[in-house]
Design goal:
This protein is mainly beta. It is 15% helix and 42% strand. The longest helix has 14 residues. The protein starts with a helix and ends in a 19-residue tail after the last strand.
């Protein structure tokens, strides 16, 4: 999974080399693919965030349909907001479903467990975003 997500980051950086700006992975958010997935957290992963200035927290969920990686948000944002997820948590995650290198991912807008965590607006804009060009590095 990590390889798929890191490959995605490389594709966006390489595809915009001539523009000197890289597209943020959140540009993949598609409101037409928003759905909910429920399962148990198998493990947490931390990968470089879209801006490479932080680590992005991802939760790998075991669902009846197989494993799904939920892209949550930057580690610093989650810590500041006291948003915690741990292995064995039972969660329902709503967000934009997508496939990266054949692996299922979901860009989370909301995580429900012991409490509800809001991470992105309905259109995909991250709640930690600053300015109007949040999707460009």
């Amino acid at each position: 999974m990590l390889i798929g997500f890191m490959g995605l980051s490389f594709l966006f950086s390489a595809s915009s080399a001539h523009s000197a700006k890289a597209l943020h992975y959140s540009t993949l958010f598609n409101p037409k693919t928003v759905a909910a997935v429920s399962g148990e957290v198998v493990r947490l992963e931390q990968v470089p965030s879209g801006n490479n200035r932080d680590l992005c927290v991802q939760a790998v969920l075991k669902t009846p349909q197989g494993q799904v990686t939920a892209v949550l948000g930057p580690k610093t944002y989650m810590t500041k907001q006291k948003l915690t997820v741990a292995p064995q948590d039972r969660l329902t995650i709503t967000g934009s479903r997508l496939s990266i290198l054949g692996k299922p991912f979901i860009l989370a807008t909301e995580v429900k467990g012991d409490r509800t965590m809001k991470l992105r607006e309905a259109g995909g804009r991250p709640l930690w975003a600053v300015g109007e060009d949040w999707h460009i590095q």
